[in-house]
Amino acid sequence: MGKFEYSLGLNELKSKELRLWQALIGEFLGNLILNFFACGACTQVEDSTFKALAFGLAIFMAITIVGHLSGGHVNPAVTVAMLVAGRISFLRAFFYIIFQCLGAISGTAAVRTLIDQDYYNGLGHTTLAPNITELQGLGIEFFLGFLLVLTVFGACDPHKPDSRYTAPLAIGMAVTLGHLGTIRYTGSSMNPARTVGTAFATGNWSAHWIYWVGPILGGVTAALLYTQILEAKPEPKTNEAAEKYRTHADEREMRKLESARDFA
């Protein structure tokens, strides 16, 4: 029963500590930052490179700010991938996704409220290009989720401790790369919550399902690939008994050499 409660996350609800609530607030703030600043950037120019940098920098900042509280998922696709990999409990994943969506809705709503509608320019909402089918869009979003989650797992691999110092930057660059490669075709969502925020603000839910199914399927595939094949191996632990024996043997040899030198 204890193992079941741990997997489900009931132990976290029973805990008197505030860690879960802090994590949920962190995920809310992370997505609010993403949608306010990155989607806000989309209202200003049509330049794809500018938008790509805006989203990458927003993710970099969000993870830097809240990563120590929640792990800095800031994306339901990352959260589901972590759940499949057994890194978080079911209830934590469920609440993360709710707060991620609420944060994204709040961020885009703030942009919509603070600027005149003449500047909306779509509020950064993700839509399919005219000649891109829903199936093609699904495939593109699949690879975007795949790229992002592979980067997350690679940057946060516990057996590669040095990479954790650059993890926020690496993940932000993955988001930038995804936008540079595909923003023209699907808007390069990579993040279901980010698209929920703009869909809610614009009232445009067209082909919305691909922005959930694509990144999540790509993320789950990446999680399974990384944990089963690509994950770094832990360094072998030294056999303490053998090490102790070797040390004593070396000491005995040293004493023999010293005795021989004294005799000579």
Alpha-beta content class: mainly alpha
- How many helices? 11
Shape: globular
CATH class: Mainly Alpha
| Low-confidence runs | none
Count of all domains? 1
Average pLDDT, rounded to a whole number, is 89
Spell out the CATH superfamily: Glycerol uptake facilitator protein
What's the CATH topology label? Answer: Glycerol uptake facilitator protein
Number of strands: 0
Proportion of beta-strand residues = under 5%
Task: Give the radius of gyration.
Answer: 24 Å
How are the secondary structure elements laid out?
Layout: H1 2-8, H2 10-14, H3 19-42, H4 48-70, H5 76-84, H6 90-114, H7 134-155, H8 167-186, H9 192-202, H10 210-230, H11 240-263
Helix pairs in contact: 3-4, 3-6, 3-9, 4-8, 5-6, 5-10, 6-9, 7-8, 7-10
GO molecular function, one term: channel activity
Region (Disordered): 237-264
Transmembrane segments: 20-38, 50-72, 93-115, 135-155, 167-187, 207-227
List keywords for this structure.
264 residues, mainly alpha, 0% strand, globular, transport, membrane, MIP, cell membrane
